[in-house]
Prior knowledge:
Protein name: Enoyl-CoA hydratase
GO molecular function, one term: enoyl-CoA hydratase activity
Keywords: Lyase
Order of helices and strands: EEHEEHHHEEHEEHHEHEHHHH
Number of helices: 12
Largest sheet: 6 strands, mixed
Structural class: alpha/beta
Bound molecules: octanoyl-coenzyme A
Strand content: 15-25%
Distance between the termini: 28 Å
Family: Belongs to the enoyl-CoA hydratase/isomerase family.
EC number: 4.2.1.17
Helix content: 40-55%
Amino acid sequence: MTYETILVEPRGAVTLITINRPKALNALNSRVLDELIQAFAAFDADESQRCAVLTGNEKAFAAGADIKEMSDQGFASMYASNFFSGWEKVTATRKPWIAAVAGYALGGGCEVAMMADFIIAGENAQFGQPEIKLGVTPGMGGSQRLTRAIGKAKAMEMCLTGRMMDAAEAERSGLVARVVPLESLVEEALKTAETIARMGPLAAIANKEMVNAAFETGLAQGIVFERRLFHGLFGTEDQKEGMAAFVEKRKADWKGR
Ligand code: CO8
C-alpha cells in the first residue's frame, strides 16, 4: 500500500506510523484521515503486528485539523458528510497503540493523540485546544477526552483560553504517561510498544477494553465487565500457556487463541 501523507513501517511486531505533511505542520486533512483509517485497519488485521506507534516530527505531532480545507465549509456540507466522523474508525482499532508526541499537538492533533491508548511525550511537546481562537470548538472528541483525562478545571481553562500546556504540565495533569528526551522519543515509544507486543495478544486487547470501559460505565458495572473478561480469558490457550510458563520458569509462547 502506498500512502501520500503518512509513512508506515513495520518494525518486527510493532507498526510505526508517521504523519508526514511537514510543510503544513502535519495538519490533518481528509487525505491524512483516509490514510490513517486504512493503516490502522491493516495493522489491526495483520496477525504479525501487536502494537502500533503513531508519531509526527520534532516540530509537530499535528497542528490541528486542516484549517484551509475546512474554512469554506457550511453547516449543510459538514452535517451531510458527518465531517470527521471517520475518526471513529481509528478509535475502533482493537489492538493497543501509543501516540509519541513531539512539538505541537493542537486542536485535532491533541484530539488524535488522546485517541491513542496512551501518550508518550517529548520534552518539547505542547498540547492545546485553540479552536476557540478560530470561532469554533473541538470537534474530534477534545472537549470530552481532555476533560476525562485532566479534569474540568484545566480542560475548561484550555478550551476557553486556547492556551497550550507543556509536556511537564501534561505529565503532572495525567494527560501523558511519560515525558522523555526529544531525541529518544520514537525509540522509547517503540521500546514500550515492543514490551506490549511481547504480551499475549488476547490479554492485551482485553486489558485495553477494560481500561476503556472505565470511561464509559459506572464503577459497579465496570467491575462486572472486568471480571467477565477475566473469566473469559480462562477459556484461552494463552492463559494456560502464561500460567504454565510462570510455574515452569520459562518464557511464554503466545498463540493468540
Ligand atoms: N491547518 C492548515 N495549515 C496549517 C495548520 C492547520 N491547522 N497549522 C499550521 N499550518 C500551516 C501554516 O498555514 C503554514 O503554511 P504556509 O507556510 O503555507 O503559510 C505552515 O503550516 C507553517 O505554519 P506557521 O508558519 O504558522 O508556523 P509557526 O511556527 O509560525 O506557528 C503554530 C506554529 C503556532 C502551530 C501555528 O501554525 C498555528 O497556530 N496553527 C494553527 C493551530 C490551530 O489553530 N489548530 C487548531 C485547528 S482547528 C481544529 O483542529 C478543529 C478540530 C475539530 C474540527 C471539527 C469539525 C467537525
